[in-house]
UniProtKB/TrEMBL annotation:
Annotated source species: Dactylosporangium maewongense
Transmembrane domains' residue ranges: 28-49, 69-91, 141-162, 248-268
Alphabetized GO MF terms: ATP binding
Domain ABC transmembrane type-1 span(s) in chain numbering: 29-309
Record's bilayer topology term: Multi-pass membrane protein
Subcellular location: Cell membrane
InterPro entries: AAA+_ATPase, ABC1_TM_dom, ABC1_TM_sf, ABC_transporter-like_ATP-bd, P-loop_NTPase, Type_1_exporter
Protein name: ABC transporter ATP-binding protein
Annotated keywords: ATP-binding, Membrane, Nucleotide-binding, Transmembrane, Transmembrane helix
PROSITE patterns in alphabetical order: ABC_TM1F (PS50929), ABC_TRANSPORTER_2 (PS50893)
Amino acid sequence: MTTTLPIAGQRVVGRAALRLIAADKPSVVAILVLNSLAAVAGLGAPWLLGRIVDTVTGKGGAVDRLALAVLACAVAQLLLTRFALAIAYRFGERTAFRIREDFLRRALALPAAVVERVPAGDLAARGTTDIDAVASTLRDVLPGMTVGAVQIVFICSALLVINPLLGVVGVLGLSGIWFVTRWYLRRARTAYLAEGAANSVLADELSATTAGARTIEAFALRERRLAAGHAAIAETHRTRLATLGLRTVFFPLVETSYAVPVVLVLLVGGMLSIGGRVSLGTVVAAVLYLRQLVGPLDSILIWIEQLQSSSASFARVEGLAAIPAAAPAATEAPRDDRIEVRGVRYAYEPGHDVLHGVDLTIRPGERLAIVGLSGAGKSTLGMLVAGVDRPTAGTVTVGGVPIADLPPDELRRQVVLVTQEHHVFRESLRDNLIVAAPDEELHEALKTVGADWADDLDRDLALHPLDGAQAQQVALARVVLSDPHTVILDEATALLDPTVARTAERALAAVLHERTVIAIAHRLQTAHDADRVAVMEDGRIIELGTHDELVAAGGPYAALWHSWHDGV
Ligand SMILES: Nc1ncnc2c1ncn2[C@@H]1O[C@H](COP(=O)(O)OP(=O)(O)OP(=O)(O)O)[C@@H](O)[C@H]1O
């Protein structure tokens, strides 16, 4: 069962955007000022063209000087825009950097148990495509909106100044755009959130399909995966069509709304001009201003549209902050190496306990095997004893301190969980060993686990990847370096091929030497060799004792043992 990552509300997104803007105030101010000046420079041309018309019709000054002024305005606008853009791009990239860093920090601060349960595709989509969408909007939206807004304010003012009546007619004629935009905004956020969620599901399906390629082949699951993939693609298609559908209504309506004020000004201006109350040049300038409004209005509306999609993305990025980070670490150090599990319950989903009050004391130095049918709760118990998550009720302590509260460095010295998943990072071999130690110690640890191939600690594992057996040796070398008193083995060598498993088991034996071992046993031979065996069924320990005691007791373990032993 997976957990869905939360989505931040509009207010949280708004505050986060303001924080990002406030973090780079000088750039924002420069962007606003330069773009405003560029917008003012851009206003010179229509007014000057109006004067040229009046000059030609015999009411003004020299045409050549006016034409030169038009050119000067254009050059000033070009230069100011260029500098404003350069600052805006740098601002955008710095901001993207900040969002990415924050996202990474938040993702790493999530409790490991949460990370394991969230769909990997969703986390990846939020960390890549969503952040990209936010970053490019922040980079472009500020200059885009400023230029647009300043131009609109100045153009409308100019319109009102050259002729107040024509100005009012023009501005009123534009009001239809407001209604159209309101209609659109009411629907867009939900539609874009649905699109983002569908994209995440698709990313998840694709990553699950690639990660499970072997299983799919082995169990002939191709058709089932195709059906699941098809459903995810169909949902992406449907949600994309929904947002595109909104745009197919929005943009044509806006286009039509632009013509309304021009027609009105031409009608009113024409009548006033015939009556001699306004010059033809003024009507021409008013119409040119209105036509000039189309550019900034268009860009503002495109930005509003873009803001809808990227604020949905930002809501997904910020959603991560809504998950409580791992609880503060314990300050107390464990008194001894004794691990106690008392009255432990655990639920992956609220209300559905998979452990129902487990009690267990793990004696320092013992080898304890946990056996039971699939789904009995063995891995869950192992995960809690390893401090990956806290129990829903009850306690899991080492030396009297709750294990999951230990700071990572301390926890690593107490208990380490070894599973069949060996994470190798795209870094050097040295960095992959994780524990900072002198080279001799690192070599020694690698030698202990039989990694004869590992002579170069600087080997770049991104360029020269490890095979399965080598990756497992690196994982075991990490255990040697952490030097915990207790190691939990959960299917540590179960899925490896037999030749590799033998090497791995030799390495494992070296690692386990003189440590407490809790082995989640899939082969009863492991239980036979252990000091004690705990038998789990439906989230409870139903038997606990030595192999011989349990066989003699003739209970569930004895039955399991006989059926396995007779089958061998
Ligand atoms: N991530 C998870 N989300 C929801 N339920 C889970 C999750 N992991 C395990 N469970 C459920 O918890 C119960 C115990 O599972 P657990 O993996 O601990 O059993 P197990 O004994 O280790 O089984 P196996 O031998 O198959 O690994 C099962 O019902 C399982 O379906």
